[in-house]
Design brief:
429 residues, alpha/beta, 2 domains, 5-stranded mixed β-sheet, 36% helix
């Protein structure tokens, strides 16, 4: 039995079109080479969503795996070499659910020294304590399987992914900047906003963008101008705080141009902006009723950690021998202390590119989606009557993907840093 465990998840290898490309191939191979140096008391576990079967529609069944292996032969050759030295265990996620439905996958993966275990939950021991391991899709109502193991009992997330994600990948080459290939790095509920952002900054005609830019940038000033006009009409001020004030009058022709832009903006906001705001607020209330949106705009079942923390708490209460609860699925790596005995909850994150939504500081310009990576693994072992959890990140910098306009509009507004994870966490046995 292993005494040391390594954990990663959500590699999402494979897919149609541009999704077949693997950004982290070199880093993952190097990681596997390091694991190859470990002894036979080590086990490497991939906690689900190793493959992007849902995004691969060109082939079906076991052929999906053969297709991915052919495209990423170097990775599988190294998996075979690493698996000859240590045990490599693969769990099933929602995106590679086929693995749980067809026994033929077991033999196919065994040829590469990969042990496929389709169980929803795996248990591993460290000393006299246990590690609870699951992918986590069953705690997400959009991706949970009503009859696990039935190839035809598919969740709504499957149809969304097959329709939008795989479809987008086939058209990625037609875009400016190949941005569509990153669609699976975006939360499902953020896809419309992300597509609007990329349309404006990449696909929109340059002439049209430059015409719209001053109107969108001055949206905030326009709101002040409308408020100022209300105050003037009410007799509170003698002049509009934006129009015809002493300071603006000194600007000459610039004042005249600004007046034209702000006047047009004012009409647009009054005629279209206010009705759109009313519709948006009603839409948010509707989504909230359907449990798709919280009052803070967070999707509880796609992005929230709440169902997983609740599940971990229930596991800890049911079995006091469980010291660590590990899951993936949401792509957001973290480590939390939870429970009276200092139990730990771990989200293994993802090796995919991450896109963070960064609001624009001025006007009504679309938000910018900032790229980053968080290639990581967790290692758990017993040492000196303690459970030692080590967290390691491998540095990877995205290519220069943002346009100059995107960089300009988010100047000094960098995305929030991901939740810090301590390099070492100790649990006393």
């Amino acid at each position: 039995m292993a005494q040391k465990y390594y954990f990663v998840s959500d590699l999402h290898m494979g897919g149609d079109g541009q999704l077949q490309h693997c950004d982290y191939a070199a880093e993952f191979i190097e990681f596997l080479k390091e694991l190859e140096k470990e002894g036979p008391d080590t086990e490497f576990l991939i906690v689900g969503d190793t493959f992007g079967f849902w995004e691969l529609t060109l082939v079906r069944g076991v052929e999906r795996l053969a297709h991915i292996i052919q495209a990423h032969q170097a990775i599988f050759d190294q998996l075979r070499a690493t698996g000859a030295r240590i045990k490599v265990t693969m769990m099933v996620g929602n995106h590679d659910y086929d693995l749980a439905c067809d026994p033929a996958f077991v033999e196919k993966l065994r040829a590469y020294n990969i042990h496929l275990d389709p169980s929803l939950v795996l248990i591993r021991t460290v000393g006299d304590k246990r590690i609870w391991i699951e992918h986590g899709q069953q705690r997400d109502q959009f991706n949970s399987f009503p009859e696990y193991g039935n190839a035809y009992a598919l969740p709504v997330g499957y149809f969304i992914t097959e329709t939008f994600v795989s479809g987008a990948s086939r058209y990625a080459d037609f875009g400016r900047g190949n941005w569509l290939k990153d669609i699976r790095s975006v939360g499902t509920m953020q896809i419309p906003d992300w597509m609007l952002s990329n349309y404006f900054y990449r696909e929109m005609s340059m002439a049209l963008r430059w015409v719209l830019l001053p109107f969108l940038l001055l949206a905030g000033v326009t709101a002040i101008a409308i408020f100022g006009e209300i105050l003037r009409v009410a007799g509170i001020f003698d002049y509009n705080i934006i129009f015809h004030n002493p300071l603006m009058s000194r600007l000459g022709i610039i004042d005249n141009v600004l007046q034209v832009v702000i006047t047009i903006n004012s009409l647009f906001l009054i005629l279209f902006g206010i009705p759109a705001l009313v519709v948006e607020r009603d839409l948010m209330r509707t989504l909230h009723r359907f449990r798709l949106q919280t009052s803070h705009g967070v999707t509880p079942n796609l992005d929230s950690e709440a169902p997983y923390l609740k599940g971990a708490q229930e596991v800890f209460q049911a079995d006091d021998k469980v010291a660590v609860f590990i899951f993936g699925h949401t792509h957001s790596a973290f480590l939390r202390r939870l429970g009276p005995a200092g139990q730990v909850v771990i989200n293994t994150g993802t090796w995919l590119k991450l896109l963070s939504r960064v609001p624009v500081r001025f006007g009504l310009l679309p938000a910018v989606y900032y790229p980053s990576y968080r290639l990581n693994y967790f290692r758990i072992e017993k040492a000196n009557d303690q459970i030692v959890i080590d967290y390691v990140e491998m540095p990877k910098t995205p290519e220069r993907e943002l346009t100059w306009l995107q960089r300009l509009v988010i100047l000094w507004n960098v995305p929030k840093s991901p939740e810090a994870i301590p390099a070492r966490t100790i649990i006393d046995l």
